[in-house]
Specification:
CATH topology of the largest domain: Peroxisomal Thiolase, Chain A, domain 1
Strand content: 25-35%
CATH superfamily of the largest domain: Thiolase/Chalcone synthase
CATH class of the largest domain: Alpha Beta
Strand order of the largest sheet: 1-7-6-4-5
Structural class: alpha/beta
Number of strands: 13
Bound molecules: oxa(dethia)-CoA
Distance between the termini: 17 Å
Length: 323
C-alpha cells in the first residue's frame, strides 16, 4: 500500500524575540506568572515585511533543501493557517507563487491550532488516493497580528513562526513497521466555537478582529480531548504508549502537555517541548517542534512519532507516523 513518508522538514521564525520581561512593559503581567502558568519564556513576533506567506515560504525552502528536492518536484501545497496574508486567495497559492511553481495545486486548511494535524491527514489522504505524489505541508502563523495587545489573558500566550514537511508517496507493506503516516484521528465539535475565536471576519464585521479566549474553559477540555484521540490512534494501529519514541504535542501550555503525557503514561523524556522558546504558534507549533527535535538528532529514521493538537472550534486530532 502507498504510505506518505517524511522526506524533509524545515522551520522559520521572525527576527524579533519578545521576552516575558519585555511583556511586562506592554501589559500588567510578570515573568513568574507566565512561566508558572504556561512554561512560555519568550516568543517571536513578525516585523515589517514578515508575513504568514513569507515565513511559510522560508520553512518550505528549508524542508525542500533537507529533502534534496526543488519546487519542480512538488505537486501539492497545503498550508494550515488561521492568519492568512489575505482573506483570499489562499496563503498556499501565495507560497506556490513565491516558490516559482506554476504546476500542481495549493490550498489552505483552517482548523486553528489543530491545523497542522488536519493538513498532514489531508495530504496523506490525497497521496494515498493518488491525487498527488509529493506534498509540501506547511503550518504558518502570525498570531501577533490578531492579538488584543491590551488583553493580558491572551497576548502573553501566542507567537509567530512556520514549519514545513515534505511528504512523498512510497510503497509500504501495510504494517506498522512501514515508514510514513500510519493513522490519523480527527475530531471537532462546534458547540465550543465561542470559547476560542476571533471576534471579526469578512462576512460578519468586515474586519479582521481579535482573538478572544476563555482560557480556563479551554484548559478544562484540553487534556481529555487530546488523550482520547491519541488513545484512538494507538487502538487503530495496535500500538501502545510503550511503542512510542516521541510525542510531539501542540505547544500551547506546558501544564497541558505534561498532564496529557502523564495520563497516557508517556515519560517526559519522550515529549518534545518548545513552548518555552516559541510560545503558542497555533498551526505552526507542531512543525516547529518537529524541526527542532529532528534537527538536533532526537527524532531519527524509524522512530514512532505521535503528533497531537487541540484548539479553536474546538478541533482536536492526532497523527501517528513512523519517521
Ligand atoms: O492553542 C489553543 C489552546 N489554548 C490553550 O491551550 C490555552 C488554555 N488555557 C490556558 O493555558 C490557561 O487557562 C491560561 C494560561 C490561559 C491561564 O491559566 P489559568 O491557570 O487558567 O489562570 P486563570 O485564567 O484562572 O487566571 C488566574 C489569575 C486571574 O486572576 P484572579 O481572577 O485569580 O485574580 C487572572 O486575572 O491570573 C490572572 N492573569 C494574569 N496575571 C498575570 C491572567 N492573565 C495574566 C497575566 N499575567 N498575563
Amino acid at each position: 500500500m502507498i504510505r506518505s513518508v517524511v522526506r524533509g522538514f524545515g522551520a522559520a521564525l521572525p527576527k524579533r524575540v519578545l521576552t516575558n520581561r519585555e511583556m511586562e512593559d506592554i501589559v500588567e503581567t510578570n515573568d513568574e506568572w507566565i512561566v508558572q502558568r504556561t512554561g512560555i519564556r519568550q516568543r517571536y513576533i513578525a516585523g515589517e515585511g514578515e508575513t504568514t506567506a513569507s515565513l511559510g515560504e522560508a520553512a518550505a525552502r528549508a524542508a525542500l533543501d533537507r529533502a534534496k528536492l526543488t519546487p519542480a518536484d512538488i505537486d501539492m501545497i497545503i498550508v494550515a493557517t488561521s492568519t492568512p496574508d489575505n482573506t483570499f486567495p489562499a496563503t498556499a497559492v501565495n507560497i506556490q507563487a513565491r516558490l516559482g511553481m506554476h504546476h500542481g495545486f495549493a490550498f489552505d486548511v483552517q482548523a486553528v491550532c489543530t491545523g497542522f494535524v488536519y493538513a498532514v491527514a489531508t495530504a496523506d489522504a490525497y497521496i494515498r488516493g493518488g491525487l498527488a505524489r509529493r506534498a509540501l505541508v506547511i503550518g504558518a502563523e502570525t498570531f501577533s497580528r490578531i492579538l488584543d495587545w491590551t488583553d493580558r489573558t491572551t497576548c502573553v500566550l501566542f507567537g509567530d513562526g512556520a514549519g514545513a514537511l515534505v511528504l512523498e508517496a512510497a510503497e509500504g507493506k501495510g504494517t506498522i513497521a512501514d515508514r510514513g503516516v500510519l493513522t490519523a484521528n480527527l475530531r471537532s465539535d462546534g458547540a465550543h466555537r465561542d470559547k476560542l475565536y476571533v471576534d471579526g471576519g469578512p462576512s460578519t464585521t468586515g474586519t479582521v478582529g481579535h482573538l478572544r479566549m476563555e482560557g480556563r474553559e479551554v484548559f478544562k477540555h484540553a487534556v481529555g480531548m487530546v488523550t482520547d484521540v491519541i488513545e484512538g490512534a494507538f487502538n487503530a494501529t495496535g500500538t501502545t504508549a510503550d511503542d512510542l519514541d516521541w510525542l510531539v504535542p501542540h505547544q500551547a501550555n506546558r501544564r497541558i502537555i505534561d498532564g496529557s503525557a502523564r495520563k497516557l503514561g508517556i515519560p517526559l523524556e519522550k515529549v518534545v517541548v518548545t513552548v518555552d522558546l516559541h510560545g503558542n504558534t497555533s498551526a505552526a507549533s507542531i512543525p516547529l517542534a518537529i524541526a527542532t527535535a529532528a534537527g538536533d538528532g532526537r527524532i531519527k529514521e524509524g522512530d514512532l512519532v505521535m503528533l497531537e493538537a487541540m484548539g479553536g472550534g474546538f478541533t482536536w486530532g492526532a497523527v501517528l507516523l513512523r519517521w
